[in-house]
């Protein structure tokens, strides 16, 4: 059955190619006869729509059954306690260390020059 759908896809693509070629020929015919382009003929439009639907139907059937992708599949394996564990946001050198009782400020460049 899949080979039938593949044939439908191939025929649909060939029909779409033929539609594009027909539209190009129609435009060049209008240029040669110095007519103004308004719309494509109805047969070209119908062929384009039918071939597009044939290709879509064939591709959906060739692809097989669609399966659901669980959006939270990765999150199911992670425990709630580790959700907020973001190592990239760890900051160890911040001004909160000055609140520590054993904080010794690091000497600045000016302090080091004054020692000499």
UniProtKB/TrEMBL annotation:
Chain segments annotated as transmembrane: 38-60
Molecular function terms, GO-annotated: inorganic cation transmembrane transporter activity
Keyword tags: Endoplasmic reticulum, Endosome, Golgi apparatus, Magnesium, Membrane, Signal, Transmembrane, Transmembrane helix, Transport
InterPro entries found in the cross-reference section: MMgT
Leader sequence residues: 1-22
Functional note: Part of the endoplasmic reticulum membrane protein complex (EMC) that enables the energy-independent insertion into endoplasmic reticulum membranes of newly synthesized membrane proteins. May be involved in Mg(2+) transport.
Protein name (Swiss-Prot/TrEMBL): Membrane magnesium transporter
Species of origin: Bombyx mandarina (Wild silk moth)
Gene: LOC114239433
